[in-house]
Structures are given as structure tokens and as C-alpha cells.
Write a structure and sequence with these properties.
The protein is mainly α. The chain has 17 helices and no strands. Helix 4 (71-113) packs antiparallel against helix 13. The chain starts with 15 loop residues before the first helix and ends with a helix.
Length: 397
């Protein structure tokens, strides 16, 4: 039996409070950006706890890749929706984002109070390299678990990874094409009717157009922050990596809110704090207009991704188990994981500078490969200390 919004009335193997506590912890200690965060969710919620099914996870990952906005936050919102509907999506989304928001606001306060944080680049020197080891291992586990031995899915994965490395961007049309190809190969319709597929995907692009509210220039800074970051959340596809160029063009070039140095520091803040990478918008907003600016920037960025997840979610829950839709989701998932794996190479090119950073990344990967008992925050903390010690000696920057 299903409710009016399409959520099955089956008792979940976990309480909503348990899920909220999990996402509070993940938001407070989940380092590595979207690649690592989606891997943690699969490991913790599917493999270890058995709270979420593999099919629900894949549906959430597919929806997160089809809709614009921060990938990890959208997946968290969808997983909250799976058994607890809109209430679950709302409180899980807040639990996931709130810890890192508090951290970046606190760092913004310190940044302004002390005229910049000179140690930030030193910490990022070590943490950035450590993150490469973490996300490489996460991408490996995610690929092996989700793709199995399916040759078609591996082909899609490799093509998606290669295109991400070459273009340094993630294209939603590639995800759609991967879904269509897998659907036609694995569950071809008896009578090909493309309008069915289009109708299933209709809520996503339509809502994105509706979300494009009035964006005329307004003299007040808060209004400019609200409109700019709404567009960032509503129209930038892909992971946190994808939103950085968009933020740069608006924050540095168009509005002149931050200098080049301040923007690089904002990106560093995103990498050395846990939770979604996009939470850097809170740091940027704070530098521009204090706590109100941080709050408006974060709300404007995450509200579109919340709506673009919750509104299509009933369709995914209701029709996601059909063979044709399941095949479509499989194809998108393979392309999504390929894009995430390709992003690892792109990020590595920006974080691995020299022999010490190579060693930090390799040692991190080796520790995760050989033992699963060392928590990621311990690895991040150790890398931060190494960065503080080594950075002044290597003469970077």
C-alpha cells in the first residue's frame, strides 16, 4: 500500500532520528567532497546498516545527477525522503548542511577578525593531497559495488570518466543519453514511445525554469546575493567541482565582492571543512555581508536543490522499480560514477604539486586499502598537521 505521495507504508528498519543523527555526523566529519560523501552513504547506509536498499540509492544518485545543484546534498535529501517523505527530506537536508555551515561561518568570522588566515593554505596543502587518497578509494569502491561485471555499464563509466577528465565538466545530456541507451538495450519497449520518457523527466527541467525567478539587478547587496546564489543552485549541474567556475565569474569578476586571493581562500575552506563542498557559499556570503549574507547565500543555493529533489521524488519512488525505468537509472548511475571518478583526476591535478603531496595521497590510499579501522577525520587531521610543518619548507606559492 502506498500513501498519496507515493511512499510505501512499510516500517523502516531505522527511525528518522537515527537517520538525522547519521547525517549530522556525516556533515560534521565527512571530508572529501561529493565523491567521498556519496561513497560514505553507500558504505554506511547500505553495506553496514542495511537501512537503504541499493535500488533506492541508485534512484537517488540518478536524480541528483539529473537535477542541478550540489550532488551529495541532493542524495542526502532523497535518502531522507525514501522512508519518511517530505519531513524526512527536510530534516535530513538540514542535518547534513548545518554543521559545515556553522564551521564556515566561524572561519569567516576569524578570517575577517585576523585579516586572513595565513595557515589556511598550509593546511590545504596537506589536506588536499589526503583528500585525493580518500576520494580515489571511495570512487574505486563505488564503481566496483555499483557496476559489477556489466560490460555496458563499464563502457558508459569509462566514456563518462574520460569526457569529465578532458572537459573538466559534467554534462547532464551525457547522463540522459547513458540512461536512454541502457534502457533500450536492457528493457526495450514493445512500442517505442519516447514521450513516456520525456514525461517522466519533465518535472526537472520545468521546475528549473520556474525557479529562474526575477533576477534583475537590485541595488541591495542581500538581494544580489540571493539572486546570484539562487542561479548557482538552480542551474549548475554536477558536483561541487562544477560550481566553482560559476562562483568565480560572479563573485570575483561580475560583482567584485572578493579578490582573487579571498576566493582561493574560500575554495580552500570548502576543501578543509567536512560536508558538501558547496557550503563555501556560506563563507563567501559572510565575507560579503556578515551573518545575513552567509544565511542568504546558503539558503539561496540549497533551496532550489531541495525543491528539485523533493518534487520529482514521488515519481522516482512510484515508477523506479519498473524494468524500463530501472534500466534507465542504471545507465545514469554508471555515467554519474564515471563522472565522479573522472573528477578525481581533475582535482588531483590541482592538489598534487610535488613529492610530499604525492606521498601524502599514496599513504592515505594505502591506509584505507589495507585497513578500514582508521577514521577519515584522523587522516585529515594528520595531513593538516603535516601540511603546517612542510608547507613553509617547500616554498609553494
Amino acid at each position: 500500500m502506498e500513501t498519496a505521495i507515493g511512499v510505501a507504508e512499510v516500517k523502516a528498519p531505522y527511525s528518522l532520528w537515527q537517520l538525522v543523527r547519521y547525517f549530522l555526523r556525516l556533515g560534521a566529519a565527512g571530508f572529501g567532497g561529493p565523491v567521498a560523501l556519496v561513497g560514505y552513504m553507500q558504505r554506511d547506509l547500505i553495506e553496514q546498516r542495511g537501512w537503504i536498499t541499493e535500488s533506492d540509492y541508485k534512484e537517488g544518485l540518478a536524480l541528483a545527477q539529473l537535477a542541478p545543484g550540489p550532488l551529495a546534498a541532493q542524495l542526502a535529501i532523497y535518502l531522507g525522503y525514501v522512508d519518511y517523505g517530505v519531513l524526512g527530506a527536510t530534516v535530513v537536508g538540514l542535518a547534513f548542511v548545518l554543521p559545515s555551515f556553522v564551521m564556515v561561518v566561524a572561519m569567516g568570522m576569524a578570517y575577517i577578525a585576523y585579516g586572513g588566515l595565513s595557515w589556511m593554505q598550509a593546511v590545504f596543502y596537506g589536506v588536499g593531497a589526503c583528500v585525493i587518497g580518500i576520494i580515489t578509494y571511495s570512487a574505486y569502491k563505488l564503481s566496483r559495488k555499483s557496476l559489477g561485471t556489466d560490460r555496458l555499464l563499464w563502457a558508459i563509466y569509462l566514456i563518462s570518466a574520460a569526457l569529465t577528465i578532458i572537459t573538466e565538466s559534467e554534462e547532464v545530456l551525457l547522463f540522459l543519453l547513458a540512461g536512454v541507451i541502457t534502457w533500450l538495450v536492457k528493457a526495450p519497449p514493445k512500442a517505442f514511445r519516447p514521450e513516456k520518457l520525456l514525461s517522466a523527466l519533465l518535472p526537472v527541467p520545468l521546475l528549473a525554469q520556474v525557479t529562474f525567478a526575477a533576477s534583475q539587478t537590485d541595488p541591495t547587496t542581500l538581494w544580489n546575493i540571493a539572486t546570484f546564489f539562487t542561479k548557482a543552485g538552480a542551474f549548475v549541474f554536477g558536483s561541487g567541482l562544477a560550481i566553482v567556475p560559476f562562483l568565480y565569474s560572479g563573485v570575483v569578476r561580475d560583482f567584485g565582492w572578493l579578490s582573487e586571493r579571498q576566493f582561493l581562500d574560500a575554495v580552500a575552506v570548502a576543501m578543509i571543512t567536512p560536508g558538501p563542498v558547496v557550503i563555501t557559499v556560506g563563507f563567501i556570503g559572510y565575507l560579503v555581508a556578515g551573518f545575513p549574507g552567509a544565511s542568504v547565500a546558503a539558503l539561496a543555493t540549497f533551496l532550489p536543490c531541495y525543491l528539485l529533489t523533493v518534487i520529482p521524488a514521488p515519481y522516482f519512488k512510484k515508477y523506479g522499480k519498473r524494468p524500463d525505468i530501472a534500466a534507465f537509472v542504471e545507465g545514469i548511475t554508471a555515467a554519474a560514477i564515471g563522472a565522479l571518478s573522472g573528477a578525481v583526476i581533475v582535482i588531483a591535478g590541482r592538489s598534487i604539486h610535488d613529492v610530499p603531496t604525492v606521498l601524502i595521497a599514496l599513504v592515505t590510499l594505502a591506509i584505507l586499502w589495507k585497513t578500514k579501522r582508521v577514521p577519515e577525520p584522523v587522516l585529515i587531521g594528520s595531513a593538516a598537521l603535516i601540511g603546517l610543518l612542510i608547507y613553509p619548507l617547500v616554498g609553494v606559492g
